[in-house]
Every structure is written in C-alpha cells, then in structure tokens.
Design goal:
alpha+beta
C-alpha cells in the first residue's frame, strides 16, 4: 500500500512538530552551513531541527516520485460571492509530472471564473509599483502561460499566469525557465496587500 497525498501531508506535519520538540536531531549541521557566524547566531540546536526536517522532506519528495504520488491539493477561492476550487502544489510536497498536467487542465475553468469576475474592474500588473494594463496585454500573458491560479481579497482578484516548474514559478531566481505573471483586478489602484 502506498501513502496518499493527504497521508504524506499528515506525516510531514507530525515530523515538523517532532523536530521542533527536539525529538529529531541532525548532528552534522556544521558541515551543512559553511558560515560560522550565521551558524553561531542561529544556534546548532535550531539548525539541527531545520536540517533534520529538510532531510525528511527530501525523502518524502523522493517517495512521491518513486510511487507517482501527487503533490496537489485543492483549495477554494471566493470572490464576489462566487467560489471555485483550485489545484495547487502543497508547500511541503513536490510536483510530479501528472500534477503539471492537472494544473494545465484547470486553466480554462480558472480563466472563465476570472473573466466572469472582472467586469467593471481595472487591471494592473502586480509589483512594487503596479502598472495599469489593458486586456490585450493580459491575453498575451494567457497565451504564454501553461497554467493559471487565483487568489482573492474582498475587493481584488489576483490572477497568476504561470509556466515552468510549479514549485519554482513564484521565485524570481527561476526566471526565465519558470515564472508567473501576476495580474490584479481592482476597482481602483490595488491595495498594498501582498497576496
């Protein structure tokens, strides 16, 4: 019997709690962090907990790949009294090939929800200084994207148009192989909330 995605999430949660209670210790932390100043500032005890959990999580990721266990979880996104269920990679799991296919398969329904929700709203690129854009630019981003995601606040809807590695697409260092254009739909200028 192989573990399910939810069972792996539960196992990782239990392991993280055990690490922070000090029940998991990795004695070779000095070998892992070559900076003695940082090592001393953080402390060997805390570092051993972090590295013990990282090692365990890496084993779980390998288990996922070996047994083809999905890292996807489904979450609701609600905006203007409408809700959609969205797939996303759980932060502690990794994506397998089938997960990227599932993310891509959900793109059309996510975009329909987004298009149906943005009537009367202005569009902005997300960033330090949001720039207003038109639907033509968003459509170009949509054509480039392999999958889409949504996040909402009470008054703003954030569309992510992503490509590359699902675990790295939100990291600036992964660009251009992986990335995500973020578009904000808002009645006026976007708030300073980071979603």
């Amino acid at each position: 019997m192989t573990y399910t995605t939810q069972q792996l999430i539960d196992i990782l949660d239990q392991e993280l709690k055990a690490a922070w209670r000090g029940e998991r210790v990795l004695l070779s932390t000095d070998d892992r962090l070559a900076n003695p100043v940082v090592s001393k500032a953080i402390g060997a005890d805390k570092l051993s907990k972090v590295f013990a959990y990282q090692d365990f999580r890496a084993q779980i990721h390998q288990y996922q790949r070996d047994y083809n266990i999905s890292g996807l979880v489904w979450r609701p996104c609600t905006f203007k009294d409408h809700t959609i269920q969205l797939p996303e990679i759980h932060p502690d799991l990794t994506a397998i090939k089938a997960d990227k296919v599932a993310l891509a398969a959900a793109k059309a329904s996510i975009l329909k929800f987004w298009h149906d929700s943005i009537a009367g709203l202005r569009l902005w690129t997300a960033g330090h200084d949001p720039v207003e854009i038109d639907i033509t630019q968003v459509e170009a981003y949509i054509q480039e994207a392999e999958w889409a995601d949504l996040t909402a606040t009470r008054s703003e809807l954030y569309l992510g148009l992503c490509w590359g590695n699902p675990k790295e697409c939100y990291c600036g260092w992964a660009h251009p192989e992986s990335g995500c254009h973020r578009v904000i739909a808002a009645a006026s200028e976007p708030s300073a909330i980071k979603v």
